[in-house]
Amino acid sequence: MMSSSAPSATPAELPRVSREVRLAAVPQGLPTAADFTVVETPAPVPGPGEVLVRNRFFHVFAALRTLMGGGVEGAPFPPLGVGDPLFGAAVGEVVAAAGDDGPRVGETVSHWLGWREYAAVPAAACRALGEVLPDPVAHLAAGWTAYHALTRTAEVRTGDTVFVSGGAGSLGSLAGQIARQLGAGRVVGSTGSAWKAERMTAELGYDAVVVRGAGPLAEQLAKAAPDGLDVVFDNVGGDQLRAALGAARAGARFALVGALSGQLDPELGGTTAPVEIDSFALILKGVTLRGTRTPEDPRAQAEWDERFGGWLRSGKVVFPHERVAGMDAAPRALEEVMRGRHLGTVVVEL
């Protein structure tokens, strides 16, 4: 029987080196590729209770700017300092295990030590993926967050008019589609460019899109949702949250899931997202605003995976994403995400 402390691959079979992306300098304004460096480092060796994962894909996401700015108290992830490797959701293959418990060699797993070729991950922090989704990369979709917010926090009902701010990003590109599958009668999104707006209505099922900078948001929302909003999936905050409150119907439910107005503002540090709203509107309309964080709930996660897999296979939902090839391209991909140059989820493929 294998010793519980010995890796299931011999030392000669284990990788000797790994590459990873590190923070080279605290960004001044929005991060650029020059703020990061790709370095070669000795490959990690899994200790007791750990597995060694060769990453195949990892997610490039704007919320990293908050961590580079020092983080926010109460957030689930620590801040990033100069010299630290970046991290985030990843999908990879187990190549060694230091015990008999947990994922086996050859299994595909997800975990949170992306931005590197090899990661030693506690077995308990890995999730074996199986074949519930038609493509492993779809496990990097932000759909579980959107599904939780739209079923548990804002509770979309049949016939609702739903507004999704930041509707072309990794969250929003799925949130609008999920709202439709949950029974929404009209789905409106927002974005920052006309070309994204065209794709949102042509490919993602949005009925209308308001475009930041194309006129007053309140006027655009009044035209896009003349009967008002029942549900708001707010991924932005700022003036978009304020405009959505103005368009809210009595009893509207707001799920606050992101703060891109602060994270993508070059004049701010990425750790605050101030907004001024009219509290009279909250009171008189009976509006509910609830912040939401995706819980660690294996049963609910499994429910989402089953529904998402079914929707993907039937074509009722698509997973908009762009794949960037290779570790060296990752810093530039992050810079482009910060500047809104992609639609959907951006994934680095190793």
UniProtKB/TrEMBL annotation:
<feature type="domain" description="Enoyl reductase (ER)">
    <location>
        <begin position="29"/>
        <end position="348"/>
    </location>
</feature>
<dbReference type="Pfam" id="PF00107">
    <property type="entry name" value="ADH_zinc_N"/>
</dbReference>
<protein>
    <submittedName>
        <fullName>Putative NADPH-dependent curcumin reductase</fullName>
    </submittedName>
</protein>
<dbReference type="InterPro" id="IPR013149">
    <property type="entry name" value="ADH-like_C"/>
</dbReference>
<dbReference type="InterPro" id="IPR036291">
    <property type="entry name" value="NAD(P)-bd_dom_sf"/>
</dbReference>
<dbReference type="InterPro" id="IPR051397">
    <property type="entry name" value="Zn-ADH-like_protein"/>
</dbReference>
<dbReference type="Pfam" id="PF16884">
    <property type="entry name" value="ADH_N_2"/>
</dbReference>
<dbReference type="InterPro" id="IPR041694">
    <property type="entry name" value="ADH_N_2"/>
</dbReference>
<dbReference type="InterPro" id="IPR020843">
    <property type="entry name" value="ER"/>
</dbReference>
<dbReference type="InterPro" id="IPR011032">
    <property type="entry name" value="GroES-like_sf"/>
</dbReference>
<dbReference type="GO" id="GO:0016491">
    <property type="term" value="F:oxidoreductase activity"/>
</dbReference>
